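re: ur question from yesterday

yeah so i grabbed the chain u mentioned. its 232 aa long if i counted rite. heres the sequnce exactly as i have it in my notes:
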Amino acid sequence: MKLLVKDIKKNFSDKVVLTGASYTFKENIIYGLLGKNGAGKTTLFNIIYEEVDQDSGSVQIEEDGKLRKVRFEDVGMIFAETILPEFLTAYEYIKFIFDIKETDKAYTIDQYFDLVDIDMEDRHRLIKGYSSGMKSKLAMVAIYIQNPKIILLDEPLTAVDVISGQQIKKFIKKLKKDHIIILSTHMMDLAKDIADEIIILNNGKLRSLENLEKDENFEEIIIEALKETDHV
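ran it thru and got these structure tokens back, copy pasting raw so excuse formatting
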């Protein structure tokens, strides 16, 4: 399975954001998407997620050698600011997701909670009282149950404590199998720890830092790549 992003262009009035972003993303790989603030990472995610229309270009899935348009159910996205129904308990929310998912489930509802270490008492608390880290973990569980082909994670560890962060990273790695995962982050340590491949969004285009070694030069190479300007 592949996600083919081809020549995506997007402007907002006179602000040029994406100038022909293209890349082929493959399953079983966690991609770390890095770019300066305002580079267009969230815009690209919103286009893939069909929240925003591109000005030109295409987003397609290739399965068994056949190309098709990305459908709504193909994509799951976790935003930097997790939006959940705060009037429900965590258990009520996950049960709702569990019940509307028609295919077979891998676990029981409580086993899904166990995967991200949400204890029994917290499962029956209102989401309104959850910390940012707990909301992120809950959103991860919902994504796992829905099992979309493409998972977009937009700054998933923003305002998350160290323990929750470790649990979320472990869970993201668990999601890797049979999925295409693109993780947008400004945190070099997170990218180094979890990403199999680093993708740079700079000057409105995507570029892979292929075979980037996770050694003492890791951050320096990324920073230099982000400093590059397009003279075309």
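noticed a couple things. The first strand starts at residue 2 and ends at 12. also The chain has a mean pLDDT of 89.
anyway ttyl
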